[in-house]
What does this fold into?
Amino acid sequence: MDVAIIGIGLHRFGRSPDMSGMQQGASAVRAALADAGLSWADMQFAYGGSQDAGNADALVNELGLTGLQFTNIWNGCATGGSSLHAAYSAIKSGEYDLGVVVGFDKHPRGAFNPQPKEWGLDDWYGETGLMLTTQFFALKTQRYMHDHGITEDALIRVSEKAFANGSLTPTAWRQQALSYDEIANSAMISDPLRKYMFCSPAEGGAALIICNADKAHQYCSNPLFLKAAAVRTRHYGSFEVFAPSQAMKVADAPTVTASKAAFELAGIGPEDVDVMQLQDTDSGTEIMHMAENGFCKHGEQEKLLREGATGINGSMPINTDGGCLANGEPVGASGLRQVYEVCVQLRGEGGARQVPNNPRVGYTHVYGAPGISGVNIITR
Amino acid sequence: MSNQVPLQEGLFTWPSSQPQLLGSRCSQCAEAAFPAQPDCRSCGSRDTQIIELGDRGILWTWTIQTFMPKEPYLSDETPETFRPYGVAYVEMPGGVRVEARLQANSPEQLKIGMPMQLDIVPFRTDENGEQKMTFSFSAAEKA
It folds into this structure.
């Protein structure tokens, strides 16, 4: 049985000072329902999550007490990927035909401050200042650059592309393109990553209406198909966040295993993908994720970025809406924002940021602490 | 001189003329971990022993923490007195890479592959005047 996406909705990312995170989630659901031409009462099930904006199932207070099954999902930054995977499984199992996936969040300003106990770690690890996601991404990027000959030029080009794409995206938080020099001269935050190479915690909501593909045409003339959804956690030996020590052994990252599983499910390979979203918590991780998802070899990114391959008109367009760098990261919503944007591209509704030549296959990848990846493959 | 105590028991041997980082090794698969833990992340066995991981290592990767972290960071610094610090994974002879603070805090002082040595250093002074000691690494002095 195939799974279709028949409605997409977004509450714009950034800051919505007059709205709670929950209200931004409800706004996204209403937009997705309107897009599908359906009502909340039609929904048989829901999966949703947020980190800092409350239990997703409380959304029924905004949307209506219809008695539907509503399950809360929490899986760090991979929450959206895990919610969509749960909905995919619910349809695949045959239990339900029609439901909604929603993510939303509203974070305070500044870097995240995770608590050691919630991650199975002792207090000293947080007290001595070793438990920052920004540090981890810098440490991993630093070693990756050393091992694979990536230079600062590549880091700058990822950010330059992200903010250029953000400037073409009406729902993006940061819509101002930044020059190469502005990025190169921005403050060093955590060597080798500078201010304009990091995304920021933000606010926003995203929602999708998911349907049994056999029934999709009842509701919608242009359904898209969720050909694969895979979520994987880390193996012993992969270099992941919130780790007081790392093994000497080297194992594939969860991104590698989730990506391989998704390609296998979909029966296609990386060469078949026309437009993609790769988690860009910072410009270093986008570079590493290009290879971990199978789109290039380790070290090839330097040349691909110099040639503009990852731009909207390039051979492998990545994060056409500016990704996390230009949209910020409301944790619960971020993974579903990726799917929303890929759906916009596959429908040909990207406007100024539309990828040319009628893209047919889209790919999304989300990464979260403490080493979780979720991959989705979507086709027309 | 104020009383000095480890920030957390079991992370390193101290006081000692030559402190060692402590970890654990699995008796089944021989993989090492830091801090010491009763179960093995590699094979799932519960048969682990506490071991000394050494006091010297190699810099595997590094960064500089330039802004003062929010809580749960708990030092006695203020935003005005905060001093950036290095953070690294140091490859230990015991067979594991340990995340640690560094004494160095500028990129010029750090290079992947350089030899490092363990230092037990004061981290903060609590309300009773007790100095909490933690582990840290600095460039190894030539032997």
In short: Chain B is about 0% helix and 45% strand. The radius of gyration of chain B is 16 Å.
